[in-house]
Amino acid sequence: MPKMKTHSSAKKRFTITGSGKVRRRKASKGHLLTKKAKSRKRRLNRDAFIKSCDMDRIRLLLCR
């Protein structure tokens, strides 16, 4: 049986850290940025982590 392929869209959206957590980008930073406050845009720059309830699903997509 051939190897399972990594899910391509998940590969582009998530990264696994050294400690095993899954990092993601925050939403609302793609467009229409002129009306958003500077502080809000700065806060959206920071990475977020996947919640534990979704962790198994995301890891399955990434580690096939």
Going across the biggest sheet, name each strand in turn: 1-2-3
C-alpha end-to-end distance: 13 Å
Mean pLDDT: 92
**Percent range for helical residues?**
25-40%
Give me the secondary-structure category: alpha+beta
Shape: elongated
Number of domains: 1
Number of strands: 3
* Poorly predicted regions: none
Main sheet specs: 3 strands, antiparallel
The tally of helices reads 3
In terms of DSSP E residues, the strand content is: 5-15%
Order of helices and strands: HEEHEH
Radius of gyration: 15 Å
Describe this structure in words.
- The structure is a single chain.
- The protein has 64 residues and is α+β, with helices and mostly antiparallel strands.
- It has one domain (8-26, 37-62).
- The protein is 39% helix and 11% strand.
- It has helices at residues 8-13, 38-45, 52-62, and strands spanning 15-16, 22-24, 48-49.
- The protein has a three-stranded antiparallel β-sheet with strand order 1-2-3.
- Strand 1 and strand 2 (22-24) form a beta hairpin.
What tags apply to this protein structure?
3-stranded antiparallel sheet, 3 strands, single chain, alpha+beta, 64 residues, 3 helices
List the helices and strands and how they pair.
Blueprint: H1 8-13, E1 15-16, E2 22-24, H2 38-45, E3 48-49, H3 52-62
Antiparallel strand pairs: 1-2, 2-3
Q: What is the structure about, briefly put?
A:
The chain has 64 residues and is of the alpha+beta class.
